[in-house]
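Much of what follows relies on a compact textual record of a protein's fold. Here is one such record, which you should read through line by line:
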Amino acid sequence: MNPTTLEAALAVLRERVAPLAAETVPLGAAYGRVLAAPVVSTVFVPPFAKAMVDGYACRAEDTFGAAPFSPRELRVAFEVMPGAVSGRALASGEAARIMTGAPMPEGADGVVMLEHAALEGSAIRLVQALPPGKNVAARGEDVAAGDVVAAAGRALRPEDVGLLAAVGARAVSAHRIPSLVVFSSGDELLDAVSEEAPRAGAIFDANGPMLEALARREGALVRRGGILRDERATVRAALAAGSEATRGADVTVTSGAASKGKEDWMPEVVSELGALWVHGVSIRPAHPIGFGRIGERLHFLLPGNPVAAWIGFRYFVRPALRLLSGLAPDEAFRPERTRSALLARKIPSVIGRTDFARVRFTEDGRVEPLRTGGAGMLTTVTRADGVVVVPRELEGLEEGAAVEVDLL
Protein backbone atom coordinates (compact mmCIF):
# COMPACT_ATOMS: atom_id res chain seq x y z
CA MET A 1 0.00 0.00 0.00
CA ASN A 2 1.68 3.16 -1.22
CA PRO A 3 -0.24 6.03 0.39
CA THR A 4 -1.17 9.06 -1.63
CA THR A 5 -1.89 12.56 -0.37
CA LEU A 6 -5.35 13.68 0.64
CA GLU A 7 -5.42 16.21 -2.20
CA ALA A 8 -4.49 13.62 -4.81
CA ALA A 9 -7.05 11.12 -3.52
CA LEU A 10 -9.86 13.69 -3.58
CA ALA A 11 -8.79 14.74 -7.08
CA VAL A 12 -9.47 11.18 -8.25
CA LEU A 13 -13.03 11.39 -6.92
CA ARG A 14 -13.50 14.81 -8.48
CA GLU A 15 -12.35 13.58 -11.89
CA ARG A 16 -14.04 10.17 -11.99
CA VAL A 17 -17.39 10.55 -10.25
CA ALA A 18 -20.10 11.94 -12.53
CA PRO A 19 -23.73 12.85 -11.78
CA LEU A 20 -26.32 10.14 -12.10
CA ALA A 21 -28.86 10.25 -14.92
CA ALA A 22 -31.76 12.69 -14.82
CA GLU A 23 -35.37 11.81 -14.12
CA THR A 24 -38.63 13.75 -13.94
CA VAL A 25 -39.57 14.61 -10.37
CA PRO A 26 -42.97 16.03 -9.35
CA LEU A 27 -42.77 19.34 -7.53
CA GLY A 28 -44.01 17.80 -4.28
CA ALA A 29 -40.96 15.52 -4.16
CA ALA A 30 -38.42 18.04 -5.48
CA TYR A 31 -37.07 19.39 -2.17
CA GLY A 32 -33.38 18.54 -1.79
CA ARG A 33 -33.02 17.27 -5.34
CA VAL A 34 -30.33 18.68 -7.65
CA LEU A 35 -31.59 20.06 -10.93
CA ALA A 36 -30.29 18.46 -14.12
CA ALA A 37 -31.77 21.24 -16.26
CA PRO A 38 -32.67 24.86 -15.52
CA VAL A 39 -36.25 25.86 -14.81
CA VAL A 40 -37.35 28.77 -17.00
CA SER A 41 -40.49 30.67 -16.10
CA THR A 42 -43.22 30.90 -18.73
CA VAL A 43 -45.22 33.42 -16.69
CA PHE A 44 -44.85 36.76 -14.93
CA VAL A 45 -44.89 36.91 -11.13
CA PRO A 46 -47.01 38.68 -10.20
CA PRO A 47 -49.04 38.15 -13.37
CA PHE A 48 -50.64 41.59 -13.01
CA ALA A 49 -50.01 44.81 -11.12
CA LYS A 50 -51.43 44.27 -7.63
CA ALA A 51 -52.07 46.16 -4.43
CA MET A 52 -49.53 45.62 -1.67
CA VAL A 53 -51.76 47.05 1.09
CA ASP A 54 -55.41 47.46 1.96
CA GLY A 55 -56.57 50.91 0.88
CA TYR A 56 -57.76 52.87 -2.12
CA ALA A 57 -56.46 52.57 -5.67
CA CYS A 58 -56.28 55.89 -7.46
CA ARG A 59 -54.51 57.99 -10.07
CA ALA A 60 -51.43 59.47 -8.41
CA GLU A 61 -51.82 62.69 -10.37
CA ASP A 62 -55.22 63.25 -8.73
CA THR A 63 -53.45 63.53 -5.35
CA PHE A 64 -50.74 65.99 -6.35
CA GLY A 65 -50.81 69.09 -4.19
CA ALA A 66 -52.73 67.42 -1.35
CA ALA A 67 -51.83 68.91 2.05
CA PRO A 68 -53.46 69.33 5.46
CA PHE A 69 -54.73 72.79 4.51
CA SER A 70 -55.45 71.83 0.90
CA PRO A 71 -56.94 68.28 0.88
CA ARG A 72 -57.97 66.38 -2.21
CA GLU A 73 -61.23 64.43 -2.38
CA LEU A 74 -61.78 61.34 -4.54
CA ARG A 75 -65.08 59.55 -5.05
CA VAL A 76 -65.03 55.84 -4.12
CA ALA A 77 -66.54 54.34 -7.27
CA PHE A 78 -66.21 50.58 -6.77
CA GLU A 79 -64.38 47.81 -4.90
CA VAL A 80 -61.76 45.25 -6.01
CA MET A 81 -61.20 42.03 -4.09
CA PRO A 82 -58.36 39.47 -4.41
CA GLY A 83 -59.04 36.95 -7.14
CA ALA A 84 -61.35 39.30 -9.03
CA VAL A 85 -60.67 41.69 -11.90
CA SER A 86 -62.41 45.05 -12.06
CA GLY A 87 -64.84 45.32 -14.93
CA ARG A 88 -64.13 48.97 -15.55
CA ALA A 89 -61.33 51.50 -15.59
CA LEU A 90 -60.78 54.16 -12.95
CA ALA A 91 -61.73 57.61 -14.14
CA SER A 92 -60.09 60.85 -13.10
CA GLY A 93 -61.24 61.93 -9.64
CA GLU A 94 -62.21 58.39 -8.65
CA ALA A 95 -60.80 55.85 -6.22
CA ALA A 96 -61.49 52.15 -5.79
CA ARG A 97 -61.55 50.35 -2.45
CA ILE A 98 -58.93 47.58 -2.87
CA MET A 99 -57.58 44.71 -0.77
CA THR A 100 -54.02 43.42 -0.54
CA GLY A 101 -53.23 41.17 -3.50
CA ALA A 102 -56.10 42.37 -5.67
CA PRO A 103 -55.39 43.38 -9.30
CA MET A 104 -55.05 47.10 -9.85
CA PRO A 105 -57.93 48.52 -11.89
CA GLU A 106 -57.07 50.05 -15.24
CA GLY A 107 -56.05 53.68 -14.88
CA ALA A 108 -54.85 53.37 -11.26
CA ASP A 109 -51.14 53.66 -10.53
CA GLY A 110 -50.97 53.89 -6.73
CA VAL A 111 -52.68 52.80 -3.51
CA VAL A 112 -53.41 55.03 -0.55
CA MET A 113 -53.12 53.05 2.67
CA LEU A 114 -56.39 52.70 4.53
CA GLU A 115 -55.09 54.60 7.56
CA HIS A 116 -53.95 57.52 5.38
CA ALA A 117 -57.40 58.19 3.92
CA ALA A 118 -60.38 59.68 5.75
CA LEU A 119 -63.66 58.23 4.44
CA GLU A 120 -66.48 60.72 4.40
CA GLY A 121 -69.63 59.23 2.93
CA SER A 122 -68.72 57.96 -0.52
CA ALA A 123 -65.49 59.95 -0.83
CA ILE A 124 -62.02 59.88 0.69
CA ARG A 125 -60.12 62.96 1.83
CA LEU A 126 -56.35 62.96 1.28
CA VAL A 127 -53.93 65.34 2.97
CA GLN A 128 -50.71 64.15 1.29
CA ALA A 129 -49.72 63.39 -2.29
CA LEU A 130 -49.22 59.82 -3.46
CA PRO A 131 -46.13 59.03 -5.61
CA PRO A 132 -46.85 56.94 -8.73
CA GLY A 133 -46.30 53.23 -8.06
CA LYS A 134 -46.66 53.61 -4.29
CA ASN A 135 -47.85 50.38 -2.61
CA VAL A 136 -48.13 48.60 -5.96
CA ALA A 137 -46.27 45.48 -7.12
CA ALA A 138 -45.69 45.79 -10.86
CA ARG A 139 -46.43 42.93 -13.24
CA GLY A 140 -43.33 40.71 -13.38
CA GLU A 141 -41.66 42.59 -10.52
CA ASP A 142 -40.50 39.30 -8.99
CA VAL A 143 -40.17 37.09 -12.08
CA ALA A 144 -40.49 37.84 -15.78
CA ALA A 145 -41.40 35.27 -18.42
CA GLY A 146 -38.14 33.82 -19.72
CA ASP A 147 -36.25 34.23 -16.44
CA VAL A 148 -34.23 31.27 -15.14
CA VAL A 149 -35.72 30.76 -11.69
CA ALA A 150 -33.52 27.78 -10.75
CA ALA A 151 -30.25 26.89 -12.46
CA ALA A 152 -29.00 23.42 -13.31
CA GLY A 153 -26.89 22.04 -10.48
CA ARG A 154 -28.88 23.76 -7.74
CA ALA A 155 -29.99 21.69 -4.77
CA LEU A 156 -33.57 22.81 -4.23
CA ARG A 157 -34.35 24.47 -0.91
CA PRO A 158 -37.89 24.94 0.46
CA GLU A 159 -37.83 28.52 -0.84
CA ASP A 160 -36.99 27.24 -4.33
CA VAL A 161 -39.94 24.88 -4.22
CA GLY A 162 -42.18 27.83 -3.38
CA LEU A 163 -40.83 29.86 -6.29
CA LEU A 164 -41.24 26.93 -8.67
CA ALA A 165 -44.85 26.61 -7.55
CA ALA A 166 -45.32 30.35 -8.11
CA VAL A 167 -44.32 30.00 -11.77
CA GLY A 168 -46.48 26.92 -12.25
CA ALA A 169 -43.70 24.32 -12.55
CA ARG A 170 -45.42 21.01 -11.88
CA ALA A 171 -42.26 18.89 -12.24
CA VAL A 172 -38.51 19.30 -12.66
CA SER A 173 -35.64 17.38 -14.24
CA ALA A 174 -33.34 16.27 -11.40
CA HIS A 175 -30.47 13.84 -11.02
CA ARG A 176 -31.34 10.46 -9.59
CA ILE A 177 -30.83 9.91 -5.85
CA PRO A 178 -27.82 7.64 -5.17
CA SER A 179 -28.55 4.16 -3.83
CA LEU A 180 -26.05 2.82 -1.30
CA VAL A 181 -25.46 -0.52 0.44
CA VAL A 182 -23.48 -0.69 3.70
CA PHE A 183 -21.51 -3.79 4.76
CA SER A 184 -19.53 -4.42 7.92
CA SER A 185 -16.74 -6.97 8.00
CA GLY A 186 -15.32 -9.20 10.72
CA ASP A 187 -15.87 -12.51 12.50
CA GLU A 188 -15.89 -10.66 15.81
CA LEU A 189 -18.94 -8.54 15.01
CA LEU A 190 -22.46 -8.89 16.39
CA ASP A 191 -25.51 -7.14 15.04
CA ALA A 192 -26.73 -4.83 17.79
CA VAL A 193 -30.36 -5.19 16.72
CA SER A 194 -30.37 -8.96 16.39
CA GLU A 195 -31.24 -11.42 19.10
CA GLU A 196 -27.83 -13.03 18.90
CA ALA A 197 -26.43 -13.52 22.39
CA PRO A 198 -23.05 -11.86 23.10
CA ARG A 199 -20.13 -14.29 23.05
CA ALA A 200 -16.61 -14.12 24.38
CA GLY A 201 -14.33 -12.03 22.18
CA ALA A 202 -17.22 -10.48 20.22
CA ILE A 203 -18.21 -6.82 19.92
CA PHE A 204 -21.31 -5.07 18.64
CA ASP A 205 -21.10 -3.60 15.14
CA ALA A 206 -21.15 0.20 15.49
CA ASN A 207 -20.03 1.02 11.96
CA GLY A 208 -22.97 -0.46 10.06
CA PRO A 209 -25.72 1.53 11.80
CA MET A 210 -23.55 4.66 11.91
CA LEU A 211 -22.67 4.60 8.20
CA GLU A 212 -26.27 3.86 7.29
CA ALA A 213 -27.42 6.89 9.31
CA LEU A 214 -24.72 9.11 7.78
CA ALA A 215 -25.80 8.11 4.27
CA ARG A 216 -29.46 8.73 5.07
CA ARG A 217 -28.57 12.19 6.31
CA GLU A 218 -27.11 12.85 2.85
CA GLY A 219 -30.41 11.85 1.28
CA ALA A 220 -29.17 8.57 -0.18
CA LEU A 221 -31.41 5.52 -0.57
CA VAL A 222 -29.75 3.15 1.90
CA ARG A 223 -29.97 -0.50 2.78
CA ARG A 224 -27.82 -2.69 5.00
CA GLY A 225 -25.87 -5.50 3.42
CA GLY A 226 -25.18 -7.05 6.80
CA ILE A 227 -21.98 -8.39 8.34
CA LEU A 228 -19.47 -10.13 6.09
CA ARG A 229 -17.45 -12.88 7.75
CA ASP A 230 -13.70 -13.08 7.19
CA GLU A 231 -13.90 -15.51 4.29
CA ARG A 232 -12.56 -14.47 0.93
CA ALA A 233 -15.22 -16.31 -1.06
CA THR A 234 -18.00 -14.76 1.04
CA VAL A 235 -16.64 -11.25 0.55
CA ARG A 236 -16.18 -11.80 -3.18
CA ALA A 237 -19.67 -13.17 -3.69
CA ALA A 238 -21.28 -10.30 -1.79
CA LEU A 239 -19.43 -7.55 -3.65
CA ALA A 240 -19.50 -9.00 -7.17
CA ALA A 241 -21.26 -6.96 -9.82
CA GLY A 242 -24.84 -8.14 -10.10
CA SER A 243 -24.90 -9.92 -6.74
CA GLU A 244 -28.26 -10.00 -5.01
CA ALA A 245 -26.88 -8.00 -2.07
CA THR A 246 -25.72 -5.11 -4.25
CA ARG A 247 -28.35 -5.18 -6.99
CA GLY A 248 -29.33 -1.67 -8.09
CA ALA A 249 -26.75 0.07 -5.90
CA ASP A 250 -24.74 3.02 -7.15
CA VAL A 251 -22.36 2.83 -4.19
CA THR A 252 -21.22 0.12 -1.81
CA VAL A 253 -19.34 0.76 1.41
CA THR A 254 -17.48 -1.77 3.52
CA SER A 255 -15.86 -1.15 6.88
CA GLY A 256 -13.03 -3.36 8.07
CA ALA A 257 -10.57 -5.69 6.30
CA ALA A 258 -9.14 -2.69 4.46
CA SER A 259 -5.49 -2.83 5.49
CA LYS A 260 -2.79 -5.52 5.18
CA GLY A 261 -3.76 -7.99 7.87
CA LYS A 262 -4.07 -11.75 7.42
CA GLU A 263 -7.81 -11.55 6.73
CA ASP A 264 -7.95 -8.13 5.06
CA TRP A 265 -9.45 -9.36 1.80
CA MET A 266 -11.12 -6.15 0.65
CA PRO A 267 -8.35 -4.50 -1.41
CA GLU A 268 -7.53 -7.74 -3.20
CA VAL A 269 -11.17 -8.60 -3.89
CA VAL A 270 -12.05 -5.12 -5.18
CA SER A 271 -9.00 -5.19 -7.48
CA GLU A 272 -10.11 -8.56 -8.87
CA LEU A 273 -13.76 -7.56 -9.34
CA GLY A 274 -13.09 -4.10 -10.75
CA ALA A 275 -10.53 -1.37 -10.23
CA LEU A 276 -9.04 -0.05 -7.00
CA TRP A 277 -8.19 3.57 -7.82
CA VAL A 278 -6.77 4.54 -4.44
CA HIS A 279 -5.66 2.47 -1.46
CA GLY A 280 -3.95 4.21 1.43
CA VAL A 281 -4.01 7.95 2.02
CA SER A 282 -1.56 9.92 4.18
CA ILE A 283 -4.16 10.97 6.75
CA ARG A 284 -4.92 10.24 10.38
CA PRO A 285 -7.23 8.60 11.14
CA ALA A 286 -8.46 6.47 8.17
CA HIS A 287 -5.01 5.86 6.64
CA PRO A 288 -6.02 2.47 5.03
CA ILE A 289 -9.02 3.95 3.17
CA GLY A 290 -9.48 2.94 -0.46
CA PHE A 291 -12.00 3.34 -3.26
CA GLY A 292 -12.62 2.31 -6.83
CA ARG A 293 -15.25 0.71 -9.06
CA ILE A 294 -16.92 -2.67 -9.31
CA GLY A 295 -18.79 -2.68 -12.58
CA GLU A 296 -20.76 0.58 -12.71
CA ARG A 297 -20.78 0.86 -8.93
CA LEU A 298 -18.50 2.97 -6.75
CA HIS A 299 -16.95 1.06 -3.86
CA PHE A 300 -15.37 2.48 -0.69
CA LEU A 301 -13.17 0.48 1.67
CA LEU A 302 -13.35 2.13 5.07
CA PRO A 303 -11.22 1.09 8.06
CA GLY A 304 -12.82 -0.93 10.82
CA ASN A 305 -12.06 1.50 13.64
CA PRO A 306 -15.25 3.56 14.12
CA VAL A 307 -13.64 7.01 14.14
CA ALA A 308 -11.62 6.15 11.04
CA ALA A 309 -14.77 4.89 9.34
CA TRP A 310 -16.54 8.12 10.29
CA ILE A 311 -13.72 10.27 8.93
CA GLY A 312 -13.63 8.18 5.76
CA PHE A 313 -17.32 8.70 5.21
CA ARG A 314 -17.30 12.41 5.98
CA TYR A 315 -14.39 13.34 3.75
CA PHE A 316 -14.65 10.76 0.96
CA VAL A 317 -18.04 9.03 0.73
CA ARG A 318 -20.11 12.12 1.44
CA PRO A 319 -18.60 14.26 -1.35
CA ALA A 320 -18.92 11.31 -3.73
CA LEU A 321 -22.64 11.02 -2.93
CA ARG A 322 -23.01 14.73 -3.58
CA LEU A 323 -21.22 14.45 -6.91
CA LEU A 324 -23.52 11.59 -7.91
CA SER A 325 -26.51 13.71 -6.88
CA GLY A 326 -25.45 16.40 -9.34
CA LEU A 327 -23.71 19.01 -7.21
CA ALA A 328 -20.75 20.82 -8.75
CA PRO A 329 -17.38 19.60 -7.41
CA ASP A 330 -16.59 22.80 -5.52
CA GLU A 331 -19.90 22.55 -3.69
CA ALA A 332 -19.67 18.80 -3.18
CA PHE A 333 -16.34 19.04 -1.35
CA ARG A 334 -17.13 22.22 0.60
CA PRO A 335 -17.94 21.85 4.33
CA GLU A 336 -21.54 22.68 5.12
CA ARG A 337 -20.83 24.93 8.08
CA THR A 338 -17.56 26.34 9.38
CA ARG A 339 -16.56 28.67 12.18
CA SER A 340 -13.33 30.53 12.80
CA ALA A 341 -11.70 30.17 16.20
CA LEU A 342 -8.38 30.27 18.03
CA LEU A 343 -6.71 27.14 19.36
CA ALA A 344 -6.68 26.82 23.13
CA ARG A 345 -4.10 24.05 23.00
CA LYS A 346 -1.57 22.76 20.48
CA ILE A 347 -2.51 20.06 17.97
CA PRO A 348 0.58 17.94 17.23
CA SER A 349 1.13 16.34 13.83
CA VAL A 350 3.92 15.30 11.48
CA ILE A 351 4.95 16.74 8.14
CA GLY A 352 3.63 14.73 5.21
CA ARG A 353 0.37 13.64 6.89
CA THR A 354 -2.99 15.40 7.04
CA ASP A 355 -4.63 15.11 10.46
CA PHE A 356 -8.33 15.37 11.25
CA ALA A 357 -8.44 16.55 14.85
CA ARG A 358 -11.71 16.35 16.75
CA VAL A 359 -12.20 19.53 18.75
CA ARG A 360 -14.66 21.15 21.10
CA PHE A 361 -15.34 24.76 21.98
CA THR A 362 -14.23 26.12 25.33
CA GLU A 363 -16.25 28.59 27.40
CA ASP A 364 -14.23 31.50 26.03
CA GLY A 365 -15.01 30.58 22.40
CA ARG A 366 -11.68 28.97 21.56
CA VAL A 367 -11.33 25.32 20.52
CA GLU A 368 -9.27 22.55 22.03
CA PRO A 369 -8.46 19.09 20.67
CA LEU A 370 -10.10 16.18 22.45
CA ARG A 371 -7.65 13.87 24.13
CA THR A 372 -7.91 10.60 22.24
CA GLY A 373 -6.76 7.05 22.71
CA GLY A 374 -6.95 6.04 19.08
CA ALA A 375 -9.40 5.68 16.22
CA GLY A 376 -11.54 3.19 18.12
CA MET A 377 -12.97 5.73 20.58
CA LEU A 378 -16.24 6.86 19.00
CA THR A 379 -16.93 9.13 21.98
CA THR A 380 -14.26 11.48 20.61
CA VAL A 381 -16.75 12.16 17.83
CA THR A 382 -19.92 12.28 19.92
CA ARG A 383 -18.27 14.78 22.30
CA ALA A 384 -16.78 16.89 19.51
CA ASP A 385 -18.18 20.13 18.13
CA GLY A 386 -16.18 19.93 14.93
CA VAL A 387 -13.03 18.92 13.10
CA VAL A 388 -9.88 20.93 12.46
CA VAL A 389 -7.81 19.78 9.49
CA VAL A 390 -4.05 20.02 10.05
CA PRO A 391 -2.39 20.43 6.61
CA ARG A 392 0.32 17.93 5.70
CA GLU A 393 2.96 20.64 5.25
CA LEU A 394 2.72 21.64 8.94
CA GLU A 395 4.21 19.98 11.99
CA GLY A 396 1.04 20.63 13.96
CA LEU A 397 -0.83 23.79 14.94
CA GLU A 398 0.36 25.89 17.85
CA GLU A 399 -1.72 27.27 20.69
CA GLY A 400 -3.32 30.55 19.62
CA ALA A 401 -3.34 29.64 15.93
CA ALA A 402 -6.37 30.77 13.93
CA VAL A 403 -8.24 27.73 12.59
CA GLU A 404 -11.37 26.95 10.61
CA VAL A 405 -13.62 24.42 12.33
CA ASP A 406 -15.68 22.04 10.19
CA LEU A 407 -18.77 22.00 12.41
CA LEU A 408 -20.61 18.77 13.15
Q: What stands out?
A: The domain at 338-407 is CATH 2.40.340.10 (Beta-clip). DSSP finds eight helices and 26 strands in the chain.
